[in-house]
Write a structure and sequence with these properties.
Strand content of chain A: 15-25%
Radius of gyration of chain A: 73 Å
Number of helices of chain B: 2
Strand content of chain B: 25-35%
Radius of gyration of chain B: 14 Å
Largest interface: A-B, 28 and 38 residues
CATH architecture of chain B: 2-Layer Sandwich
Protein name (chain B): Dynein light chain roadblock
Number of strands of chain B: 5
Number of helices of chain A: 18
InterPro entries (chain B): DYNLRB1/2, Roadblock/LAMTOR2_dom
Strand order of the largest sheet of chain A: 6-7-8-9-13
CATH topology of chain B: Beta-Lactamase
Structural class of chain B: alpha+beta
Shape of chain A: elongated
Keywords (chain B): Cytoplasm, Cytoskeleton, Dynein, Microtubule, Motor protein, Transport
Largest sheet of chain A: 5 strands, mixed
Largest sheet of chain B: 5 strands, antiparallel
Order of helices and strands of chain B: HEEHEEE
Family (chain B): Belongs to the GAMAD family.
Shape of chain B: globular
GO molecular function (chain B): dynein intermediate chain binding
Oligomer: heterodimer
Number of strands of chain A: 37
CATH class of chain B: Alpha Beta
């Protein structure tokens, strides 16, 4: 049997092959091993005891060569290693491998591996042996092994199976049902019975909510699928008729109680506290400094036009002269048409010279005096001519109906014209700038109405009776404004008709007359009176004279005559011009076309003047705020302030006019203009002689401003409509002076010469928005239209308030002046009285010289006594000193 | 009631003040020195304006809040002081 190595069970094959190689020499042992017998003592020494250190599994033991040699030396021949002494000495390595041979395959129980290679081979075979064996198995056909039945290894699945299986938990119940014997074999009916029907057939344990016990499901995992379902549905609604709905609402408000409650609450208090301080700061800030004030812009307004020449002169815009009619004639009055822009009317009359007046009546028939209507569009032909019975000195358009014109004549008659028939023609002139004719309808020259080329002449439609009117030439005519009228007693009452119905005239025959264009209240008496008068009229009714004022023709009478008696003397004032306080039409200068258009509409609605009746004073409400006092400028240069209200004279019971309250002789010549300022209702400008004066109503001491005498007579004056401190003065030598009271008060700020003859009338006019015109007429019959430059027409910053302050200052000055005068007068009187008194005192007898000396000595003595006392009091004099003598 | 009147009088006596109105946050007037129609009109209009102004200020910066609102017009100046529950509106005519 060959010795087979058995390192491991897997290494069998290799070993087998190795053994088979070795087994060829059955008897001979391989070279590299040597069987040994190791006694137990040796085994203990080398720690290779059988079955303890060395077993079947680990049969090798590594011994050290030195220890073997030592053992051999110690035990010499007894050592087990004796037979191999030589081989051990020769062994190259340090360690020898001892193999335990259990089965005694090499003859002994141990064997010693003698070579290094074998040793290595034994110790390190496993890896290569295994691989070889693995290869070996795949190469060889695997032997089929039937899997052996392994015992059951429970992994815990019996429990589940137990749970799932169904078993009888108890033995099955068996019931045996038997019936009565007699029913044996009888058919049986089995029915089903619902257990729930009768309660006693069953008992149930219903579930109930156990209060003490509740399980809350904290989390559920559910799957949800959401699918939108789409459906189309349509319905038909009934569309009823549309309705306007409105709801009324009002503001939410608190009741008084609630307000009180809130106001008393704590919250409210806190709020007010916190907020008030903020406001005080803000309000004071506003007062201290105006943050939003634009200095730059304000500067611009004061400076005027910057850069280039500053236009200050009145530029000549147009001038009108009619060669046929106005030769050797003068213009007495100018009036702009209130509604139509660019239309101006002038009244022309004979130049007033004494010879002319005497011979005047003869010229009347040759050349009837006319009022010309000029339009800017046609400088050669006048638009309309009004025929006058006599030279008209003053006329005015009716403010409420510009087709009615009233005028006052040289002979004292008041004349009325109605130009409604030609209103279209006049209107057409506004738009036809540059066109020769105003009519647009006829284009064919041959068929043009010849009348349109010729200026139409309109005759007056009513004139007052010569005996009823003034006895002297009427110098001023004014319409009363439409908001009030005057009753018979002179009391201003409200005007229900809202059209101008009354006219005031004045003449140097010392009265001011009030006329009404309506008939007085109808009484049967007057009716009968009137009729015969109508038939008696010598004038034939011409076809082209409108009948508007037929009722007044020749029978027109003033209803109030205001006489102007002078104080003290029995004489009277002879008024030339007057000015009312509340007459808004006095200074109508255009720019406000709205009100006049309204009036036009009213009048176009058809006011039949003939049908108007003066209402009884009792029915109308008297107006309190209309002042009945007015200023009059007289022929002698006096300015009279009087009242037109009639007083009842106690003796005779008649209504008499009151005596004028104030009269001032200021001007050196007759007064030719009395004009109210359009900005201040109580400032009046009077022009007369060589000076002009400005008055303030209410200040009765004198004029607040009185100009110095100018070298030439002042012939006319008028305020500027847009600048409160500017007015125009016309002079005898044809100069127009522009006075700016804020600039210079001692002389005119500007003078411009317009013609060689004196200026007779100045009237400014504003064509909105920007054109300001000045119509100036002169004695030679030419009408000049001037354009007012920007510097003269636009007011400077705060001009009105500055002017107001200036006037106040002047008033104060006047008052002061008067006070001083009084004071001086008083002083003078006192002084005179004193002087008088002195003179009147009796002369004292002369004293003798001795007496005088005695008196002096007495005085001296008293003086010394006094001195002593004083010094004593001051402590400067001691008591011991003797009194000086 | 008197006390709050007096405090308001202090503002009223300032130069140029035309009217004072106190309204709740909803715009219902509590006290006013103007006539009823004007008061109610001012209250309604200004309340909306103040709301808008407040929202504007706060949106830009949530820490911020409206303390005072002044509207300057040609003729006068309207000053509004809003609070949590009430507004005070003062209409003033500045120096002129």
């Amino acid at each position: 049997m060959m010795a087979s190595k058995r390192p491991k069970s897997t290494g069998d094959k290799k070993n087998d092959s190795a053994d088979s190689a070795g087994s060829s020499t059955e008897l001979g042992l391989p070279d590299d091993i040597f069987p040994l017998v190791l006694t137990s003592g040796t085994q203990e020494l080398f720690e290779c005891r059988v079955d303890k250190d060395v077993t079947r599994e680990s049969p090798y033991k590594i011994l050290r060569k030195e220890e073997i040699l030592k053992d051999m030396k110690t035990r010499a021949a007894v050592s087990d290693f004796h037979p191999i002494k030589q081989t051990v000495l020769n062994y190259p390595g340090e360690e020898l491998l001892l193999m335990f041979d259990r089965d005694f395959t090499c003859g002994q129980n141990f064997y010693l591996v003698l070579t290094e290679e074998s040793k290595k081979r034994i110790l390190e075979p496993p890896v290569s042996a295994r691989e070889d064996t693995a290869e070996g198995t795949s190469l060889d056909s695997p032997p089929c092994k039937t899997p052996e039945c392994q015992p059951w290894v429970s992994l815990g699945s019996e429990r589940e199976i137990e749970e799932e299986s169904v078993r009888d938990s108890r033995p099955r119940l068996k019931y045996r049902i038997s019936r009565v014997r007699r029913k044996f074999g009888a058919p049986v009916t089995f029915t089903d019975c619902n257990a729930q029907e009768s309660k006693d057939k069953y008992t149930e344990c219903t579930s109930y909510d156990d209060r003490k016990f509740s399980i809350e499901r904290m989390e559920i995992t559910t799957g949800v699928q959401a699918v939108p379902t789409l459906r189309s549905i349509s319905t038909q609604t009934r569309w009823t008729y549309p309705r306007n709905m409105c709801s009324q609402y009002e503001f939410r408000e608190f009741t008084e109680e609630e307000k009180e409650n809130i106001a008393n609450s704590e919250n409210f208090r806190n709020f007010v506290n916190s907020v008030v301080s903020r406001f005080e700061v803000a309000a004071q800030q506003n007062m201290i400094f105006d943050v939003f004030f634009n200095d730059w812009q304000a500067l611009h307004e004061e400076d005027g036009i910057f850069g280039g020449k500053v236009e200050t002169h009145l530029k000549e815009y147009q001038s009108f002269t009619d060669l046929h009619f106005t030769k050797e004639k003068t213009i007495s009055d100018i009036n702009w048409h209130p509604t139509i822009n660019g239309l101006i009317a002038v009244s022309v009359m004979e130049k007033l010279s004494s010879e002319g007046k005497i011979n005047g009546s003869a010229k009347l028939l040759q050349n009837p005096p006319l009022i010309f209507f000029w339009s800017f569009s046609d400088p050669i032909n006048p638009q309309l001519l009004l025929e006058c019975p006599d030279d008209v000195l003053s006329f005015q358009f009716c403010p409420s109906n510009p087709n009615i014109i009233v005028g006052g004549c040289m002979n004292g008659q008041v004349v009325l014209w109605d130009v409604s028939a030609h209103a279209d023609r006049l209107q057409g002139t506004r738009s036809a700038a540059g066109k020769a004719t105003s009519a647009n309808e006829c284009a064919l020259p041959a068929f043009q109405d010849k009348r349109e080329l010729n200026t139409p002449v309109v005759r007056y439609c009513a004139v007052s009776g010569v005996e009823n009117g003034h006895k002297a030439r009427i110098t001023d005519v004014q319409w009363l404004p439409e908001n009030f009228e005057i009753s018979k007693a002179g009391i201003p009452v409200e005007n229900k008709a809202h059209i101008c119905v009354q006219v005031i005239t004045c003449a140097p025959d010392c009265c001011v007359m009030f006329w009404d264009i309506r008939l007085p209240r109808v009484t049967t008496h007057s009716l009968t009176e009137r009729k015969p008068k109508v038939t008696e009229t010598p004038h034939l009714n011409r076809s082209d004279v409108p009948n508007t004022f037929k009722h007044l023709d020749l029978s027109w009478k003033p209803f109030i005559k205001v006489a102007l008696p002078k104080k003290g003397t029995g004489a009277e004032y002879s008024p030339l011009k007057f000015s009312l306080r509340d007459n808004m039409n006095d200074n109508q200068t255009g720019g406000s076309t709205e009100t006049s258009e309204q009036n036009l509409e009213k009048s176009e609605g058809g006011t039949e003047y003939a049908l108007l009746r003066a209402s009884s004073a009792k029915q109308l409400k008297p107006l309190e705020d209309i002042s009945t006092r007015f200023y009059i400028g007289t022929q002698d240069g006096e300015v009279v302030y009087t009242d037109w209200k009639m007083e009842k004279d106690n003796d005779s019971g008649r209504l008499l006019s009151t005596k004028p309250s104030h009269c001032f002789l200021v001007h050196d010549g007759f007064i030719n203009s009395v004009r109210r300022s359009p900005f201040f209702k109580d400032i009046i400008l009077t022009v007369g002689g060589w000076t002009f004066a400005i008055w303030k109503e209410g200040v009765m001491n004198g004029p607040i401003i009185h100009s110095s005498c100018s070298p030439k007579k002042c012939t006319v004056g008028y305020w500027s409509p847009s600048r409160p401190g500017v007015f125009f003065i016309g002079k005898e030598d044809g100069n127009v002076e522009v006075w700016d009271l804020l600039e210079k008060t001692h002389e005119a700020s500007q003078t411009q010469n317009l013609s060689t003859t004196q200026i007779t009338c100045i009237k400014p006019w504003i064509v909105p928005p920007k054109q300001h015109f000045l119509a100036v007429s002169d004695h030679s019959g030419t009408l000049h239209i001037l354009e007012v430059p920007w510097s003269l027409r636009s007011p400077s910053y705060n001009e009105k308030s500055n002017m107001a302050k200036y006037f106040e200052k002047e008033v104060d000055r006047l008052i002061f002046l008067n006070k001083r005068k009084e004071m001086r007068a008083k002083e003078k009187k006192d002084k005179e009285a004193e002087e008088q008194k002195k003179k009147m005192e009796p002369k004292m007898p002369e004293k003798l010289e001795e007496q005088i000396e005695e008196e002096n000595l007495v005085h001296y003595k008293t003086y010394l006594a006094m001195e002593k006392v004083i010094l004593k009091n001051m402590g400067l004099l001691s008591d011991e000193e003797p009194a000086l003598n | 009631m008197n006390w709050s009147f007096e405090t308001l009088k202090r503002i009223q006596t300032q130069k140029g003040v035309q009217g004072i109105i106190i309204v709740t946050a909803e715009g219902i007037p509590i006290r006013s020195t103007l006539d009823n129609a004007s008061t109610v009109q001012y209250a309604g209009l200004i309340q909306q304006l103040v709301m808008k102004a407040r929202v504007t200020v706060r949106e830009m910066d949530p820490q911020n809040d409206l303390t005072f609102l002044r509207i300057r017009s040609k003729k006068n100046e309207i000053m509004i002081a809003p609070d949590k529950d009430y507004f005070l509106i003062v209409i003033q005519n500045p120096t002129d």
